[in-house]
Write a structure and sequence with these properties.
Order of helices and strands: EHHEEHEEEHHHHE
Helix content: 40-55%
Strand order of the largest sheet: 6-5-4-7
Shape: elongated
Number of helices: 7
CATH architecture of the largest domain: 2-Layer Sandwich
Distance between the termini: 48 Å
Number of domains: 2
Radius of gyration: 19 Å
Strand content: 15-25%
């Protein structure tokens, strides 16, 4: 990390209000405390950082006419009568999983099979609506 861009935790504590104003109006801040390095960013900045994160699913048309969406990145699968309802159901499942991940962050974030979920989780946690998540779901045809 570039030391010239980094503020000490002591500096931040002394001028918390100014630092927070700067982070929300100007740019993220890099903060160092002993051996810890932290980035303080607004949700708008975080949203920009995660703008390329998409929930890429495989879509299957089932024999009964229903639609199955499989989101392999998070091990989530839904089956509904229509694509619209499947996307809505998957977006709800993504929200629920994001809340579960956040509640169990200490273990999930270091777990080999869940560590890579963090960008998807953070995108879901800062989304303004379920519709925003639905719009981030991309469907690719699968083979039955």
């Amino acid at each position: 990390m570039n030391a010239m861009l980094t503020m000490s935790a002591t500096e931040v504590r002394k001028d918390w209000s100014r630092v927070l104003d700067s982070v929300t109006r100007r740019r993220p801040a890099f903060i160092k405390r002993t051996h810890d390095n932290v980035v303080l960013a607004s949700t708008e900045s975080l949203s920009a950082m995660l703008s390329n994160v998409r929930y890429e699913t495989t879509i299957f048309q089932e024999d009964d006419g229903s639609i199955t969406l499989s989101l392999d990145a998070l091990d989530l699968v839904v089956n509904e009568k229509s694509l619209e309802s499947a996307k809505k159901s998957l977006a709800n499942d993504i929200e629920e999983y994001a809340e579960e991940y956040y509640a169990n962050y200490e273990s999930y974030s270091v777990s080999p099979n869940r560590r890579a979920h963090l960008p998807y989780v953070m995108k879901a946690l800062i989304a303004d609506s379920t519709k925003e998540l639905e719009d981030a779901i991309e469907c690719h045809a699968g083979k039955n």
